[in-house]
Amino acid sequence: MAAAVAGRSILILAAVLLVPAIFVSAQQPRFACDVSANPDLKSFPFCDTSLSVKIRVEDLLKRLTLQEKLGWLANSAKGVSRLGIPDYEWWSEILHGVSYTGPGVKFTDLVPGATSFPQVILTAASFNESLFRAIGKVVSTEARAMYNVGLAGLTFWSPNVNIYRDPRWGRGQETPGEDPLLASKYGVAYVRGLQERDDGDKEKLKIASCCKHYTAYDVDNWKGIQRYSFNALVSRQDLEDTFNPPFKSCVLEGNVASVMCSYNQVNGKAACGDPDLLAGVIRGQWKLNGYIVTDCDSLEVMFNAQHYTKTPEEVVALGVNSGLDLNCGSFLAKYAQAAVDRGLLKEEAVNKAAYNNFATMMRLGFFDGDPRKQLYGNLGPKDVCTEAHRELSREAARQGIVLLKNTAGSLPLSPASIKSLAVIGPNANNGYTMIGSYEGKPCRYTTPLQGLSAHVSTVYEAGCADISCTTAQVEAAKKTAAGADAVVLVVGSDQSIERESQDRVNITLPGQQQLLVSSVARVAKGPVILVIMSGGGMDVQFAKGDRKITSILWVGFPGEAGGAAIADVIFGAHNPSGKLPMTWYPQSYADKVNMTMMSMRADRSTGFPGRSYRFYRGPTIYPFGYGLSYTKFTHEILDAPTQISVLPLDSNHACKSSNCSSIDIQALNNVEGFEIHIKVKNAGGMRGSHTVLLFWSSPRVHNAPEKQLLGFEKLDLGVGEEKALTFAVDARKHLSVVDEEGIRKLGLGEHVLHIGDLKRSFSVKI
Question: What's the pLDDT tens digit per position in 332-384?
């Protein structure tokens, strides 16, 4: 989400960074139905908490004028003073901590910062659902605490569950990666952590989250091609099995309170103006219990950038009639009344949208009176940036860090044997880079230099003036490295390289960073640890093959405590267990493949190699799911089926009388479920956590994925310890593939399970 004018978000961010925290005293939270201040409000049913949400909202709508209802279809909602309803700002962000992006959050002397967790791509590398949920719970607690003192709202437009389709996408860092299952599980767990209340009331919300950006959105600004006018040409097959699953899971399993539609068009139709995508799928098929919101200024974009309709009123009417409830921006507020006057927009449609918005606010307790007298009323500044929250941020970074290379005798380093550690690189002492995009003000920073210096004596050299590294300071860096017992190089990217509104062209280290790394490695007398701080993958084949570079770590954008977490891994206080949530491609991929071509599947006839580990046929720097440990883990499949039967088919089904390669899952009356039992052992010499990734390959029908993630589980094992693990498999849900028309089908024939180097085949037959 960002302003429709390219670059406006950058200017806003720059302004935010230059302005110190506002110094104000405690404020009152915004809420309606303040019966203490206005006892007359007790007579209104919409203020009666004993009534259902439906009755309360219907009562409220009857009391509002059309103009007042329209005022609640925009993010800066207009209060209705005669009914005791204040202004409300819907737009706040909470991607990996309470963020100052959007006008709904303010940091002041009362709450100068909030816990900044790792950027999502690194958290996803932990493959730990309980961690995803725990982070959501912490950041929603901090958001509620800030709301109670008037510094935040209750509606937050996070998480981003788009698929990281192309390695050049600037916003890939915000996502859980390239795999639909991982993105779905992350989205569901984080949403539940954000929204679910401690009293177990499933109808009410702690805060309201939003899964974005629906759908097929992953081009921002590539070689001048802008997201605002981009038309994503997507097959039904790719839409169903790649782009939409995380949103579907958010709604059906996470019970998310909102879905945000994206700027782009999908097959020639504006995503925020397509009744099939909005009213048809989100509201109709998935039964969203909440509101649908535009990305910011999307309606304006439809009119001014896409020239989608002849008049502004037609855009507004199209959006609301298609299923929109809320417009981030001023376009709807400016033209909605005229759309009604022209007969393009009926008050009935306005009522439906307003109902969904007010119902969400009812579920949040906004209409229940003073929030300080409700469940979370005791939360305040003392509950933000607590020691426990900051430690969880550090733990999240530790769990996500991926060990990509480790030569024997390199990591972990022993502090006792290191008298001097050279710390070199443009990201070695840059705190702001660590928190990535959609950031807030962190509690405090621990940079890599600071984290490492807490363990041993260090000597520091930046090596580059900035991340672009136009001219590397090679000689100074070599001199620093030559006298040290070991070297840690911290390189990579930052928001000037990859971010919203800026996609990459090259996926190599920027500027002369490679020269810096190789030059330092040549003169180093001890271990050389390369730390890559980035959102996306990098072509670091040069380092992978350089014997002088003894270890490589990818640390994403690791959050406020990232430097401490990096030091924990380097010195062995934590055994790395992260796995890559995206494929690392060679630069030749970026040179050859058009980023705007949305197809996922490889095409031999055109030489297109495909996208993601599921469909890509080509060389990688590092594959999806890759990650080393300081110890060794072994797997054993204890029990898995050899055959699954489809019983029975209807007597008139075509497959009763002819050979079929697959069957529509809707036609299956009964399919056997089964369990896979696995034993995992720590066969090495160090305690550690291990992520078990269960992959599956379908029979070669409907251009199915090469393999696909079926499930994952994280285990902690002591030296020599064994643990049993069970995966429950629902054949309809887990073993189906999507055909060319977007229909899910169960392939008949041989299926294969993959766990590490192990494979187990089983057949599915009628």
Answer: 999 999 999 999 999 999 999 999 999 999 999 999 999 999 999 999 999 99
- Whether 198 is catalytic is no
Given the DSSP bridges, would you call strands 421-424 and 486-492 parallel, antiparallel or unpaired? parallel
Strand partners for 737: 745
The DSSP result for 158-177, as a single string, is --B-----STT-TTGGGS--
- pTM here is 0.96
List pLDDT tens digits, range 216-259. 999 999 999 999 999 999 999 999 999 999 999 999 999 999 99
Cβ–Cβ under 8 Å, residues 460 and 395: no
Residue 390: name the closest of 643, 645, 219, 135 by CA: 135
Backbone angles phi, psi at 243, to 5 degrees: -80, -35
> Which H/E stretch holds residue 194?
helix 180-195
The residue written with tokens 């996922």 in the block is 600
DSSP readout, 451-519?
Answer: HHHTTS-EEEE--SSSTT-SS--HHHHHHHHHTSSEEEEEEE--TTTSBTTB--S--SPSTTHHHHHHH
Give the separation between CA 152 and CA 146, rounded to whole angstroms.
5
Question: Which among 295, 368, 494, 503 is annotated as catalytic?
Answer: 295
Characterize the bridge pairing of strands 749-755 and 758-765: antiparallel
CB 216 within 8 Å of CB 239: yes
Indicate the residue type of 291: Y
Q: What is the pLDDT of residues 431-465, one digit of tens each?
A: 999 999 999 999 999 999 999 999 999 999 999 99
Strand partners, 716: 689
3-state secondary structure of 310: coil
- Whole-number pLDDT of residue 1: 52
User: Over the Cα atoms of the chain, what is R_g?
Assistant: 27
Read off the pLDDT of residues 277-331 as tens digits, 9 standing for 90 and up.
999 999 999 999 999 999 999 999 999 999 999 999 999 999 999 999 999 999 9
The letter for the amino acid at 486 is A
Coil, strand or helix at 116 = coil
Determine the average pLDDT of the residues in 507-528.
Answer: 98
Packing angle of the helix pair 562-570, 387-400 (nearest 10 deg): 50
Burial 518-551 (b: 16+ CB within 10 A, else e): ebbbebbebbbbbbbbbbbbbbbbebeebebbbb
pLDDT tens string 626-641: 999 999 999 999 999 9
What is the 8-class DSSP label of residue 658?
A: S
User: How far is the C-alpha of 517 from the C-alpha of 543, rounded, in Å?
Assistant: 8
Per-residue model confidence as pLDDT tens digits over 408-438: 999 999 999 999 999 999 999 999 999 999 9
Least confident among 18-22, 180-184, 480-484, 656-660: 18-22
What span, in angstroms and rounded, lies between the C-alpha atoms of 707 and 245?
A: 17
SS3 string, 548-592, reads CCCEEEECCCCCCCHHHHHHHHHCCCCCCCCCCCCCECCHHHHHH
Phi/psi at 404 (5° precision):
-95, -25
Residue 656 burial (CB count, 10 A) = 12
Helices (H), 595-685: 612-615
Report the DSSP pairing between strands 486-492 and 633-639. Answer: unpaired
Which has the closest alpha carbon to 197: 11, 29, 375, 463?
375
Pair of tokens at residue 478: 């070599």
Distance CA 17, CA 622 (A): 35
User: Rounded to an integer, what distance in angstroms lies between the CA atom of residue 163 and that of residue 615?
Assistant: 14
**Cα end-to-end span (Å), the chain:** 48
